[in-house]
């Protein structure tokens, strides 16, 4: 079964500093991977996704993620944090079933705090 | 504007009462999903539906029920059998097909049962 690990639950950075949110996955098939962001009391919004092809994926709001098969990782980065990046971030892997249905398996999330 | 509507935003119920959470989408998506979110637990899948009149249990279906009579609607009923129903509930939908499509999420309903 597919699974996602996001180690830790909180990360704090200074405004302008590098943001690095780690995600490791386990998948029995070539994975489809996603990063979502959630602002307080709101739904989730897609930041970026990896399907096939280029391993460095660029998303919205200056975020990007690199798929590394050898490390089973899909870490999210942003070169310079902005106050508006404060939110919770979820990594997810697609779980495709034999009958054609597809669901997402989420990590537990990481709360990002950005200090002025 | 296309999107997913969940109503109400906040819902309060007494213990022992069933309550139904609404989820409507106008994205013409075939697949729909219900998740429960608790602090520090991430999102856990309750039920999902790939097509009208068909749905499957997710990881935590006990104490919940759903219906999918229309493509655009996927209501979730939290029954009195659900031991700890207070949570934030998120509905999502997804286009189906050969390509890899992401899930789109609604704004959520926060349910408090006392």
Low-confidence stretches of chain A: none
Helix content of chain A: under 10%
Helix content of chain B: under 10%
The helix tally of chain B amounts to: 0
Q: From N to C, what is the helix and strand string of chain B?
A: EEEEEEEEEEE
How would you characterize the overall build of this protein?
The complex is a heterodimer of chains A (116) and B (114). Chain A is mainly beta and 116 residues long. Chain A is built from no helices and 12 strands. Helices cover 0% and strands 53% of the residues of chain A. Chain A is globular, with a radius of gyration of 14 Å. The model of chain A has no long low-confidence stretch (mean pLDDT 93). Chain B has 114 residues and is an all-beta fold. Chain B has strands spanning 4-7, 10-13, 19-25, 31-38, 42-51, 54-57, 64-66, 76-78, 87-94, 103-105, 109-113. The radius of gyration of chain B is 13 Å and the shape is globular. The model of chain B has no long low-confidence stretch (mean pLDDT 94). Classes of the chains: A mainly beta (116), B mainly beta (114). The A-B interface holds A 9, 32, 34, 36, 41-46, 49, 51, 90, 94, 100-104, 106-109 and B 4, 6, 31, 33, 40-45, 48, 50, 56, 58, 88, 90, 92, 94, 96, 99-100, 102-108, 110.
Descriptive labels:
heterodimer, A: 116 residues, mainly beta, six-stranded mixed beta sheet, four-stranded antiparallel beta sheet, 0% helix, B: 114 residues, seven-stranded mixed beta sheet, globular
SSE map:
The complex is a heterodimer of chains A (116) and B (114).
Chain A (H helix, E strand, L loop, with lengths): L2 E3 L4 E5 L4 E3 L2 E3 L6 E6 L5 E7 L5 E3 L5 E5 L4 E6 L8 E10 L5 E5 L3 E6 L1
Parallel strand pairs in A: 2-12
Antiparallel strand pairs in A: 1-4, 3-9, 5-6, 5-10, 7-8, 8-9, 10-11, 10-12
Chain B lengths: L3 E4 L2 E4 L5 E7 L5 E8 L3 E10 L2 E4 L6 E3 L9 E3 L8 E8 L8 E3 L3 E5 L1
Parallel strand pairs in B: 2-11
Antiparallel strand pairs in B: 1-3, 3-8, 4-5, 4-9, 5-6, 7-8, 9-10, 9-11
